[in-house]
Amino acid sequence: MQNIKQFFRQRLSSIWPKLSYIYWLIKTKIPLFYPKLLKDIDRVLSSSVKGNSNEKKILFFHQSNGIDNLSFQIIISKALELRKNTIEYFIGDIYFPNSCNLGIYPKLDYFRYLQYKLLVKKITDLSHINPENTSGYFSILNRDKILSYIKNLSENEIKNFKYKNNNIFTIALPSVLHFLRAENIDFKSSLDTRVLFETMSNICEMYDTCVRYLEIKKPNIVCLVNGLHWPAASMILAAKNKKIKFVTTEEHFRVPYEGDFHSSFLLDVNSTSIEKLSNASHFKNILKKTDNKINYDVLDEFLKSREESRTETITYASKNNQNNNLLNKLKVFSKKRKTFVLFTGIGWDSAYRYAASSAFTNSEEWLVETAKYFQKSEANLIIRIHPAENYSNFRMKKKTINSIKDFIDLENIFIVDSKVKINAYSLMDLVSGGITWASTTGLEMAMRGLPVITAFDRIYTQLGCSFDPRSKKDYFKYLDKLINFDLDIDREKTKIIAREIAYHYFIGLNHPLKFIKRGFDYDLPSLNFNSLSELNSGLDKSLDNICELIAN
Q1: What is the per-residue DSSP string for 121-138?
Q2: Cα 299 to Cα 551: distance, rounded to the nearest angstrom
Q3: What whole-number distance in Å separates Cα of residue 235 and Cα of residue 247?
Q4: Kind of pairing between the strands at 166-167 and 452-454
Q5: Which of 201, 333, 357, 529 is the most buried (most CB within 10 A)?
Q6: What is the DSSP code (8-state) at residue 532?
């Protein structure tokens, strides 16, 4: 089914958003045609929560086109209501053409925005939620005034621009790069600067919008998704200004829980999960504070499902669905001489913004210089370009393959393009070690006892399971040792350390939520319970933990 959708999306790209909107217009207007999510909400959440609300006033802020995140918020808000809290919703309803959490570069199509707005309206109506909209507090006039001012600033002034003591460029950067699908902003590009200027001006006014709302409503707690993309980041600034507790949520992995795999969520109080898990120093502190009771059976169950691509939201290639002809070529290639694998990352990944250190200016520089090194070496290198680059929602502004096209026909460098279906774990089976920018594949190779060199700090670096140079000089020293099998590595100890980190990252820090069933490939989720009463206190430990963390 997903392949069919992908086919039509690509062939009808110019009119697909309009067709999709018409489709959803029909699906949301006629109850007979409701998708399962709407039927579930109408069946399960249509009854109101009874009882006195005398605990906390909790505000849920939602400004993205992630219906799955909204579904999560609604389930949690109903559970919090049952625990005698007052719930309010503040929902974004303004069209920002150059801003979208899932954004389609180079702009968010207006019909995709209408589709999102349509679904949100129907979901909130069926859930008996009466939200207020950001448009009622947002001043377009003030936003445009700020935009005119920013346009006349120099590059250095833009990077240091502050609005009410907040560095707006720093806050805007993750969203802009995410939207552009780029690793860096090109200040000579009219597209890049337009998106940057509009995002910065939007942040300024959204901050004022959120301050105005918080001053009127005076919630005790603000709950929001991600916290890094600019609308949520603006609300966080406002909450900090008003000294209001905020909780960020982030969908993470599907993890084993009560006999099945369920979506899980990271929750952080007065911080963001992305910030904490993006570098090793934060994660080291998390490990110190986390209960060391590790259920390795659960971890192994999770890892097996991951290798088999059974539980991922987006499936790139499973071992049962890969290019076996190419894999056989790689097997022959790897037998000729000692072979290593390099996994690229996604340059616009939000996690990169918070990493502590890198031996290179950017991932392109790292990739090209590494390829040049192997070009002169007696070892093989397999370069696996991240398959997300070929995924329709992740279209890169600049394809990685273009950076290394000079190395395509070399005898000892084999480039596996993003379009090729090859399972990452199949490649790990062929090599003697690995190199990565910031991918979790580094952690997974370490769990196999393979020596791993990283070029960018991530959750598992500086913790004893990888080699993490802080300079180019040290990086190439490590490469020399890698290809000569001269790295000082205790394979069994590496496996133990890597598995401990993996357990906490993939399992221990997550809060499973069995009440929602995530759709694949951004399909709508569905509800996985039959009665509102199932959300009551004391019936599900993980739900209780989520509610406790948010409210108390």
Answers
A1: HHHHHHTT---EEGGGT-
A2: 30
A3: 11
A4: unpaired
A5: 201
A6: G
What's the start-to-end Cα distance of the chain, in Å? Answer: 43
Tokens of 295: 């259920």
Edge-first strand order for the sheet with 86-91 is: 132-133, 86-91, 57-62, 221-225, 245-257, 260-269, 511-512
Tokens of 365: 């520089």
Please count the other Cβ atoms lying within 10 Å of the Cβ belonging to residue 165.
7
What pLDDT does 101 receive? 52
What is the structure's pLDDT at 187? 96
Pairing verdict, β 245-257 and 260-269? antiparallel
Note the helical H segments in 421-485: 424-428, 441-447, 472-483
Q: Contact 342/436 with Cβ under 8 angstroms?
A: yes
For the chain, the maximum distance between any two Cα atoms, rounded to a whole number of angstroms, is: 73
Q: All domains of the chain, ordered by start, with CATH?
A: 2-46+54-258+515-551 (3.40.50), 298-508 (3.40.50.2000)
Task: Mention every residue, 6+ apart, whose C-beta is less than 8 A from residue 1.
Answer: none
Q: Residue 466 corresponds to which amino acid? A: S
Q: In one letter, which amino acid is 236?
A: I
Strand duo 221-225 + 166-167: pairing: unpaired
CA 129, 131, 132: angle at the middle one, nearest 5?
165
CA 129, CA 290: separation in Å to the nearest integer? 36
Q: How does pLDDT run across 293-344, given as a tens digit for each residue?
A: 789 999 999 999 888 877 766 666 667 778 889 999 999 999 989 999 999 9
Q: Which DSSP letter does residue 404 get?
A: S
What is the C-alpha separation between 118 and 112, in angstroms, rounded? 10
pLDDT of residue 63: 85
Whole-number pLDDT of residue 201: 97
Give the pLDDT score at 66. Answer: 76
Q: Which residues of the chain, if any, have pLDDT below 50?
A: 103
Among 535, 385, 515, 525, smallest CA distance to 83 is for 535
**Can you give the pLDDT at residue 155?**
97
Distance of CA 539 to the CA centre of its chain: 30
Strands 516-517 and 526-527: antiparallel
Distance separating alpha carbons of residues 505 and 266, to the nearest angstrom: 10
Q: CA 350 to CA 480: how far, in whole Å?
A: 31
Using DSSP, state whether 252 is helix, strand or coil.
strand
% of the chain beyond a pLDDT of 70: 90
Q: What is the pLDDT of residue 140?
A: 96
Nearest to 202 by CA among 119, 274, 142: 142
pTM above threshold 0.85: yes
Contacts of 220 (CB under 8 A, 6+ apart): 56, 57, 58, 244, 245
Give the span between the Cα atoms of 215 and 208, in whole angstroms. Answer: 11
Nearest-angstrom CA–CA distance, 124 and 322: 41
The separation between CA 374 and the C-alpha centre of its own chain, rounded to angstroms, equals: 32
